[in-house]
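Hi Y.,

Following your request, here is the sequence exactly as I used it, all 188 residues.
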Amino acid sequence: MKDIFFRYWEAYGGIGALVKSPYFIASIIITIFLYPHWSSPGWWEDSLSIMPNLLGFSLGGYAMWIAIGDDNFRKLISGADEDGTPSPFMEINAAFVHFIILQILSIITSIVAKAYFFSIPESNFLHPYISSWIIYFSIAGYFMAYFIFIYALLTALAATFALLRVASWYDASQTKPRASDKKPPRNH
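Below is the corresponding structure, written out as tokens. Let me know if you'd prefer a different format.
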């Protein structure tokens, strides 16, 4: 498990690729902007209703990615470089794995937020002592869980563009041979 995770993380680009990702940065901004939504109980219902459907889309998209092209095309984009840099084939696979991992994390964190939501009634003698700690802990947890939810949503866009990129590579690989098959114009 650890080995395959490190292969995914290396092909994805590691922490550098994560923090430089426009989807990651946009997710932080959107999460901050949507504070009124996720700072109150019940926000997890959106995540729990959207993410399972998106996970199904992701698995279908991943299957579509595997089906793109022929054996020659897959050989063309596969195989690490001499310096060990992951191939485009592995980079696209890592993008889909990243997308799917985020969706699963979003579902899990939403379930945890829903399961552990509680409030202490003001009539309870402990209320003045621990209610502020619970609020701070909840806000931090809600922020993190909602950020993962938004990031998972935005990586749907990233995965879609990854599929388009691969389709354009395949199209380019098929366009060049077809162009050379054309007969040159005759001189009259």
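The chain is about 80% helix and 0% strand.

Thanks again,
Q.
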